[in-house]
Design a protein that fits this description.
By secondary structure, this protein is α/β, with parallel strands linked by helices. It is built from 16 helices and 14 strands. Bound molecules: FE3-S4 cluster.
Length: 396
């Protein structure tokens, strides 16, 4: 990969050993993918924050970067951690896990990263512009930023997004290039989508069929922001989709329409959605109802609050969101309404990256195929339902 003289000097340590270490990682990545050169990025979103995923080796890697005096150069936010940073005890997170997790957050803060701890940074002011080159990890956020915002990122990993945050650079390859953003299959949805669960199911089915290919959707109806975030999260989970286009919905769909001629078409019908829901649902009696994968928006917390208003939950309901959205929801009284009914609202974490086994979780119910897939992989039984269905059941 071609490096400018300044980049060579960075690699030799002119800007310190932390920058050199980060750049070395990006150069290796660029060489693997045969990138022509490095390009500047304007924002980073960093995943791999949970102590569950990082373990001691990961924390030490981060602490080493801090010791090397590394600092971020661009706006950088953090994905969810393994616990609510304040209410971890109430969540049932073991203390040794909490201590490890707090070390992780401290290391990121020392690097200068904003401890947003959310997979929806775009709901709390981190909204890259159309066409901007960014280095985002977290597959659902990658899908959202590429597809809905029209920014350009690859599916970065925790380490590569940190390296880009520290250097302000990334190798030029894959979805950063115009030609790789073209659709590879047309996906026609031939059924009315009436809930966010339906949108999540469409994403799940698409990923299963297409793997990592770029879909061009027709017939998605009029999805709200929340439906777009859940669709992307699901197709990034069941396949490895990083970018999708939705006719009349996503910003690049108009220019990409010309490349759909002659493409193979896949049809998604009501039966496919039904089967996907059935496949992810077990007959379980007392699940923890988990909302917020990806993290709840203000609208979703408002909807949940309305459903439980002046009523008492018999089942356990937990909503996961970001601190930024929580603060707004608290001002508007939504958090109080959910908590008064017996529900919980947690920030900084989610039903996947928390240490669920250690917390004794065995069954969950959710409206997100991403959450269901990950929980199933962890041996937790799952059930699918719309928020309305799940909360109505918990009120019975
Ligand atoms: Fe976010 Fe956790 Fe789901 S990170 S996308 S809520 S698995």
């Amino acid at each position: 990969m071609y490096l400018t003289r300044d980049q060579e000097k960075m690699l030799e340590g002119e800007q310190g050993p932390g920058v050199a270490k980060a750049l070395k990682l990006l150069v290796s990545l660029g060489d693997v993918f045969e990138a022509e050169k490095l390009i500047p990025v304007v924002s980073a979103h960093i995943s791999g924050v949970s102590y569950k995923n990082l373990g001691e080796a990961g924390v030490e890697w981060l602490e080493d970067l801090v010791k090397l005096d590394a600092k971020i150069k661009i706006k950088s936010t953090l994905n969810p951690a393994g616990m609510d940073l304040k209410k971890w005890d109430k969540m049932g997170v073991p203390e040794d896990f909490a201590l490890g997790q707090l070390r992780v957050i401290k290391a990121f803060e020392s690097l200068g990263v904003e401890p947003t701890c959310t997979c929806t940074p775009y709901l709390v002011g981190h909204v890259p512009k159309f066409g901007s080159q960014i280095a985002w990890a977290e597959s659902s956020a990658v899908c959202y930023s590429n597809s809905v915002l029209g920014a350009r990122t690859n599916r970065e990993s925790g380490p590569t997004s940190i390296a880009s945050a520290i250097t302000g650079l990334t190798p030029l390859y894959e979805y950063r290039l115009e030609e790789n953003r073209r659709p590879k299959k047309v996906v026609e949805v031939k059924t009315e989508l009436t809930s966010r669960l339906d949108y999540s199911a469409v994403g799940y089915v698409t990923g299963k069929i297409l793997g990592t290919m770029v879909p061009y959707y027709k017939g998605l109806g009029k999805p709200d922001l929340e439906s777009l975030k859940t669709l992307g999260a699901a197709c990034a989970t069941s396949g490895g989709i990083a970018l999708w286009h939705g006719e009349g919905i996503t910003p690049e769909s108009k220019s990409m329409n010309q490349f759909t001629k002659g493409l193979e078409k896949i049809v998604i019908e009501e039966r496919d959605i039904y089967e996907a829901k059935e496949k992810m649902s077990c007959d379980i009696k007392d699940p923890i109802i988990c909302l917020g994968c990806p993290h709840c928006s203000l609208k979703e917390l408002n909807e949940a609050a309305k459903l439980v208003r002046n009523d008492k939950l018999k089942g356990k309901v937990m909503a996961f969101t970001s601190k930024g959205v929580y603060n707004e929801a608290e001002k508007l009284g939504f958090v109080k309404e959910i908590e008064d009914s017996g529900g919980f609202v947690y920030v900084d974490t989610c039903m996947v990256v928390a240490p669920l086994k250690e917390m004794g979780w065995k069954e969950i119910a959710t409206n997100s195929f991403k959450a269901a897939q990950y929980c199933t992989n962890m041996g937790i039984k799952t059930k699918m339902g719309t928020v309305n269905e799940l909360i109505t059941e918990a009120l019975k």
